[in-house]
């Protein structure tokens, strides 16, 4: 006799019974604590330094539309069909060619197409992390990476650093002490700080990973948006990094985020595990988007487009840098990123940028407070400013409002 036969069902209660609870991970990982305040940034009068949105007037709408028209006219049966999980061969080859053009030997088979680089992060977390595993992150760190690792049940530990990023000596000590599985880093024009890790530190970070046994997730959505200075080689290109670095990239900041196209370049065993994870997540990234992007890469000059975008972003960065001394309280400090979309400011010790935000938003301008980006002890006097979405004139007006909001004028 089975247990089911022997134990009579309890009588049904009248009315609906309580549902089983959500998974612990869904209860443990919250949304952004400042999202409610920032919801009002959609108001048209708002000057929004808080968003992380590429400037939409710079999208190559005509070029992208032409690429979609071409693939839908010429290969509709393919463009509208299911495709392989790894991604369309033409796009993988186009992306591999871009890596080779930057001196990193890469075949189409060394990478898969992902639904934005955000999916790459989730796939790597799924493939590598057990609940309770330790992940090392930068302090401060990209928020949605903290979420992805939170959903994987990871214990997140911040690596000390400075204005240039992670300190490799501190990294090594933490690796020995905490036995982490992976380090997550955005070494170029980091979100949220805009800072860039110098070449010698990249080599040192790769050497720690080689010596101590550590996966590195190198997230690089902003590296192409360089306004000045020399390109710094990827951690993935350092000696000893070949079998232990997952390099994430994206067309979001160089073409358009609505395409949801990214890639994951990783050693073969990790790539295979991520393909299985991606199958379970979404089967594949939309075929028509992949083919249109491949077509765009083949027919157009993406580098020339990125050069035009970077020139405009540079003017906007300069407009923000020119106005910050007047806008922020005396004693504030900020950095001067050589590219990307963000800069990072620190007000004097007594300021709390989370507490100040509602008053600032009342002046129709917004920033993101720094505190939520910290996995360790938050520095409450910090804030992130996105300088790319407004024109220099709007930036000037916005900084005037910021001053009024911060100083209670
Ligand atoms: N990584 C970082 C550091 C980011 O800032 C972003 C976008 N804000 C992403 C990944 C995700 O980008 P996407 O999924 O659009 O490629």
Molecular structure report:
There is one protein chain. The chain has 409 residues and is an alpha/beta fold. The chain has 2 domains: 26-53 and 304-407, Aspartate Aminotransferase, domain 1 (Alpha-Beta Complex); 61-300, Aspartate Aminotransferase, domain 2. It is built from 15 helices and 15 strands. It has helices spanning 3-6, 24-28, 35-38, 61-74, 76-79, 89-101, 116-128, 143-151, 168-178, 199-212, 268-282, 287-299, 302-327, 353-361, 392-407; strands spanning 47-48, 111-114, 134-138, 155-159, 161-162, 165-166, 182-185, 215-219, 245-250, 262-265, 333-334, 342-346, 365-366, 368-369, 382-386. The strands form 4 sheets. The protein has a 7-stranded mixed beta sheet, sandwiched between helices. A 4-stranded antiparallel beta sheet has the order 11-12-15-14. Helix 10 links the parallel strand 7 and strand 8 (215-219). Helix 7 packs parallel to helix 8 (143-151). The longest helix is centred in the last third of the chain and has 26 residues, at 302-327. The chain starts with a helix and ends with a helix. Bound molecules: 4'-deoxy-4'-aminopyridoxal-5'-phosphate. 4'-deoxy-4'-aminopyridoxal-5'-phosphate (PMP) is lined by residues 52, 116-118, 142, 186, 191, 219, 221, 250, 252, 257, 262. 4'-deoxy-4'-aminopyridoxal-5'-phosphate binds at residues 52, 116-118, 142, 186, 191, 219, 221, 250, 252, 257, 262.
Structure described in brief:
By secondary structure, the chain is α/β, with parallel strands linked by helices. Helix content is 42%, strand content 13%.
């Amino acid at each position: 006799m089975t247990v089911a036969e022997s134990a009579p069902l309890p009588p049904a209660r009248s009315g609906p019974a309580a549902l089983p609870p959500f998974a612990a991970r869904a209860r443990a990982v919250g949304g952004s604590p400042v999202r409610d305040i920032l919801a009002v940034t959609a108001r048209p009068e708002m000057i929004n330094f808080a968003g992380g949105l590429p400037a939409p007037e710079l999208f190559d709408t005509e070029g992208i539309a032409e690429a979609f028209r071409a693939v839908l006219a010429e290969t509709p049966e393919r463009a509208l069909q299911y495709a392989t999980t790894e991604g369309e061969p033409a796009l993988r080859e186009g992306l591999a060619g871009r890596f080779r053009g930057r001196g990193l030997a890469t075949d189409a088979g060394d990478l898969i197409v992902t639904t934005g680089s955000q999916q790459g992060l989730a796939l790597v977390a799924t493939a590598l992390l057990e609940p309770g595993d330790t992940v090392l992150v930068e302090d401060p760190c990209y928020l949605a990476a903290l979420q992805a690792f939170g959903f994987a049940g990871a214990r997140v530990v911040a690596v000390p650093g400075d204005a240039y990023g992670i300190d490799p000596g501190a990294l090594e000590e933490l690796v020995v002490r905490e036995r982490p599985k992976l380090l997550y880093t955005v070494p170029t024009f980091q979100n949220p700080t805009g800072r860039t890790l110098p070449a010698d530190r990249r080599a040192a970070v790769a050497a720690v990973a080689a010596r101590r046994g550590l996966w590195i997730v190198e997230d690089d959505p902003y590296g192409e948006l360089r306004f000045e200075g020399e390109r710094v080689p990827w951690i993935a290109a350092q000696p000893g990094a070949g079998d232990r670095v997952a390099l994430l990239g994206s067309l979001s900041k160089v073409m358009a985020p609505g395409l949801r196209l990214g890639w994951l370049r990783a050693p073969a065993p990790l790539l295979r595990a991520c393909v299985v994870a991606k199958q379970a997540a979404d089967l594949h990234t939309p075929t028509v988007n992949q083919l249109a992007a491949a077509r765009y890469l083949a027919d157009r000059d993406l580098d020339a487009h990125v050069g035009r975008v970077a020139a405009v972003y540079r003017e906007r960065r300069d407009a923000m840098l020119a106005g910050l001394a007047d806008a922020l309280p005396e004693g504030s400090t900020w950095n001067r990123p050589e590219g990307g979309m963000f800069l990072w400011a620190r007000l004097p010790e007594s300021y709390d940028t989370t507490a100040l935000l509602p008053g600032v938003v009342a002046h129709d301008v917004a920033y993101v407070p720094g505190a939520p980006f910290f996995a360790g002890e938050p520095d409450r006097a910090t804030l992130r400013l996105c300088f790319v979405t407004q024109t220099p004139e709007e930036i000037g007006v916005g900084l005037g409002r910021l001053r009024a909001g911060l100083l209670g004028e």
